[in-house]
Amino acid sequence: MRIRVENKLSGDLDYLVVTRLPGSDTPATGLDEKTTGLINKVKELGGAEKYLETETVLYTEGGPARRLVVVGAGKDFDVASARKLAQTVTRSLRKKGGKRLAFAFQLPALSNAGDLYQALAEGVVHSTFEPGFYHTGENKDEKVLEDVIFLTNSDGDIKERVARGVVIGEGINLSRYLANEAPNVMYPERLAQEAEKVAKETGLEFHALDKAQLTEGGFKAILAVGQGSIHEPRMIVLKYNGAGDAPYTGVVGKGITFDSGGISIKPAEHMDHMKMDMSGGAWTIGIMRILAQLKAPVNVIGVVAAAENLPGGAAYRPGDVIGSLEGKSIEVLNTDAEGRIVLADGLAYARKLGATRLVDMATLTGAIVVALGNSVTGVFTSDQDWTDLFLKTASKAGERAWQMPLFPEYKEQIKGTTGDLLNTGGRAGGSCTAAAFLKEFTGDVPWIHLDIAGTAYTDSEKAYQAKGPSGQIMRTMIDFVIATAESNK
Ligand code: BES
Ligand code: MN
Ligand code: ZN
Question: Is the pLDDT of residue 110 over 60?
Answer without folding.
Answer: no
